[in-house]
Amino acid sequence: MEDEYADNASPTLYATMPSTRDLNALLKLWRGYQKNEKAPRGLAPWYRVFAMLADLRLWGPRDRLTANAQAELIARLPMDDQDPVRLELEIWPTANRDQRTRWQQDTRVRVEALGGVVISTSSINATGFIYEAALIEMPAAAVREMIENPSAPDGLATVEGLQFVLPQTIAQSLPNPSAAEDDQDQRQYPAFDEGAPIKAVLLDGTPIAGHPSLNGGVIIEDVHDLVGLSQVQHRRHATSMASLILRGDLLADGTPVRESRLLSIPVLIDNEQSATSPDDRLFVDVVHIALARAFLGDEPLAPDAFLVNFSIGVKGAGFSGRISSLARLLDWWADQQGILFLVSAGNVPDDLIIPNTTSLAFEDGTHEERKALVAQAQRSARHTRTLMAPSEAINVLTVGATSHDLADARGPEPAGEIMLEENGQQLPALTSATGLGAMRSIKPDLIHTGGRHNIRMLPAGGHLRLKVVERTQRTGLNVATAGAGAAAMYRTRGTSCANALVARAHLNAAAALQEEGGPFEDQDLGRRDFALITKALAVSASRWNDPAKDMFEAEKQRIGAQRHAQAREETCRYFGHGVLDDFLMTEAPALGATLVGVGTVRRDQAATFEVPLPAPLSGERIGRFMRVTVTWFSPVLPTRARYRLAALDAVAMGEDLLGDPLKDDGWGLDLSTNDIDANIIRRGSVWSRRLKHNGPVVPRYADDEVLPIRVQCRDASGGGLSQDDDIRFAIAVTIELENETSFDIQAEIQDQLRVQLRGAR
To answer: Quick one: pLDDT at residue 760?
Structure first.
C-alpha cells in the first residue's frame, strides 16, 4: 500500500562516523553510486543502502535550520526589518567542555558581526545530558536573509559549532478565555492536612494559593523571581491545575487529594492572554534550575515528591521526528532521579477542515458517518496535529484529553453547536494532539477526562470548518480561577485539565499503596518506586473503550484486514493504551485481582515473579483476561541514533499445564494477545500487554500452581547500555474474570500475591 502521508514526510537519519577518513571514504562511495559506477569489491551492500536514500551529506545549513524552524520563524517575523527577532542557537553537545566554549565564542562573534546580540547562555554539563545554547536577538532583516539563503558563507547557519538554529522557545499555557464566576454557594471544602508531605511539583504559572479551595494545599516557591511579574487577576492556568490536582472537579468531587500537598515552582509569567516563559532566558535552563531546587542539594524543596505536573507546551514545536532539548531534559531527569513527569499532549489550535461537505449534510449524517468524516480529515491533517514538545519524550507519561464532563452541563444545547460523541461515549477531544512519540513509541500513553468540547460548524468555501467552542461556561470541568471574587471558579477544558486529573489519580494511588491493607503497608518506598508503580497502575487501568475498538475495526477495513499492526498503531495515535479509569488505580476490578511489585534488572538479565493461580479457577468454564504492565525509566544517550538504551518486556516461563514448553502467547491460562500489537509496545519505556482467553474452559492445574513471569532487559541502542547499569522497574498484573463465580478471586490469592511479589524485588 502506498504511504498516504508520504508528501508530508521528510525522514532523516543522522549518523556519526569513527573518523574523518571513514567519512570521506563513504562520501566517495556515494558519489560513485550517483554516477552509476560499479560497486567496489566487497562494498555492494552499501549500494543497497544508498538505493533507499535521497541524499547523503555532511551536516550543514539545511540541517541546522530545518524546514519546520524556518516555517515558525517566518510566522514570527515582524514587518519592520529593524525590529528584533529572538533565536535559540544550540551548540553541538560534545563532552569536550573546551570545544563547546570555543564554539560559543565563535557563535557570539558571528552574531555580533550580523548586528545581533547575545541575551543569555546556558551550559549544562552532566553525565548523560549536555546542553550548550545561546539566546540571541537579531534584526528581522538578518533573520529573513538567513531563511532565504541558509548557506551564505558569513551567515548564522554556517557556523561550524552550531547544531540547530531555532525560534526562541516560547513555553505557554492557554487558560480558558471565558469570564470567571463567583461561587454563589460559598462552598465549604474539607480542609487539607497542612502536615501532609509534598508529593507533587507543579511547573506552570503562579497559582492563587489563598483561594478558598486551595488554601493550605499548595505552597509556592519563587525560584525564578516570577511571582511579582504575574498579576493576581491573570493567575488562571496554574490555579486551575492546582485546583484539579488537589480537589478534582469542584462540583463533581471537591475532596482533598490523599496524604499530599502540592509545591508550585512558577516557570511561566501569567498575563492577560496566557502564561508564557520569561523572554530573556533559555527555557531549558529555567526548567533545569527549578528541578534542581526541588530535588537536589542539602535542602531540596520537595524531598518526598515523586511526580511533576507539566501542563506546558512549546509554541510552534509540533513533534516531527527530532526530540526537543526540553524532552531530552525530562527524559534525563526521570532516569537520573526517578521522577515521573506527567506531560499534556498539547492542544491543537487549528480548526479541522472536512472537504466537500456542508454543515447541513454533516448535521444530518448518522453518528458513524460523522465519525468517519472527522477521522478522514484528521488523517489528512495529521502532520499539523502532532504532539507538542516536550510530550514526545519516552520516559514521561503523556496524557491526551477526552471530550467528557464530570458534572452536568448548564442549560440546554445552544443552537448551532453539536457534540461528536453520543450516549456518554468518551472520544478523544478534537483539539487533543495525536501521536506517535519519539522512537515511534505509543503517545499519548493514555487519555483522560478533559471537559466536553462542543463543536460549531462554519462554512469554508466548498468545505466545512469544525471549530471547538471555547468561550462557554456551559460545559467543561469546574475549577478555581482568578477574578470575580475571592472564591472565583469557571469551567475549562483541554489536555492540561486531563493531565492534572491524572496527577490527582497518581497521588491517590500512591496513598493507597501504603494504607492499612495496602500492598506496601509498613514498607518504605522510595521516589523511584512510587513513580514507577503508579505509572504502571495508570497504564494498566487504561482500557480501549468501544470507540477505540470501533476505530481499530474501521482502520482494518480501510487499510486491509491483514494489516492489523498498522491499524492498531493508528488507534494508538489517538487513544494510546486507552481511557484511564481512576478507580482501577486504587482498587482491583470487581471480578479480579491486581498484583504490584518492583524489581531491578541489568542488561541481558531477568527477574522472575511467581503469580499464584487461584485453585478454584482450575477447569472452570469462564471467560478470563489478564493485563501485564512493566514500567521503567530508560537511560538515554542523545549522541546515539538509538536514543533509548534500555528495553524491558515480560514473558511467561516454564511449561504449560500439559507439560509442553510454554509459548510467549500462552500465559498459563490459555490466553493470547488482545488489543495492542506486540511490536508497538516494545518502543518506549512502558510494556503493557492485554491478554484474552482462547477458549471457554480454564486448563486444569494443581492447587499450588503458579504462573512465572520473567521481566527481562535488553540493550535497545546497539551497545550503549552498560552491563553495570541497574534498571529499576515496576510490574502490575491484573487477572480478571468475565462473570461472577462461586468464589472470591481476590480472597483466594490476596495473601499469596503480597508475599511472593514483595519477595521478588
So the answer is: 42
Residue 387: is its pLDDT beyond 90? yes
Describe the strand order of the beta sheet including 352-354 as a list of residue ranges. 352-354, 463-468, 455-460, 417-418
Beta carbons within 8 Å of 573's beta carbon, 6+ residues apart: 382, 434, 435, 436
Q: What is the DSSP letter of 39?
A: P
Q: Do 517 and 508 meet the contact criterion of CB atoms below 8 Å apart?
A: no
Provide the H-helix boundaries in 205-311: 237-247, 283-295
CA atoms of 283 and 293, how far apart (whole Å): 16
105: which residues sit within 8 A by CB, 6+ positions away?
none
> Coil, helix or strand for 509?
helix
pLDDT in tens, 274-319: 899 999 999 999 999 999 999 999 999 999 999 999 999 998 888 9
* Angle ∠(90,94,100) on CA atoms, nearest 5: 65
Query: Does 206 or 617 have the greater pLDDT score?
Result: 206
The distance of Cα 156 from the centroid of its chain, to the nearest Å, equals 33
Distances (CA, A) of 511 to 197, 418, 515, 586, 622: 11, 40, 6, 9, 34
Give the pLDDT score at 753. Answer: 47
Burial classification of residue 14, based on how many CB atoms lie within 10 Å of its CB (0-12 exposed, 13-18 middle, 19 or more buried): exposed
Residues 144-159: what's their mean pLDDT? 92
Residue 749: the pLDDT is: 60
Predicted model pTM: 0.92
What whole-number distance in Å separates Cα of residue 571 and Cα of residue 565? 10
Spatial CA neighbour of 709 closest among 658, 744, 667, 756: 667
Residue 312 burial (CB count, 10 A): 30
Say how many C-beta atoms besides its own lie within 10 A of residue 129's C-beta.
Answer: 20
Residue with the larger pLDDT of the pair 675 and 626? 626
Helix (H, G, I), strand (E, B) or coil at 373: helix
How far lies 172's CA from each of 122, 268, 310, 346, 495, in Å? 20, 7, 11, 10, 13
Residues 71-107: pLDDT tens digits? 999 999 998 989 999 999 999 988 889 999 999 999 9
All residues at 6 or more sequence positions from 632 whose CB lies less than 8 Å from its CB, including other chains? 532, 646, 648, 685, 727, 728, 729, 730
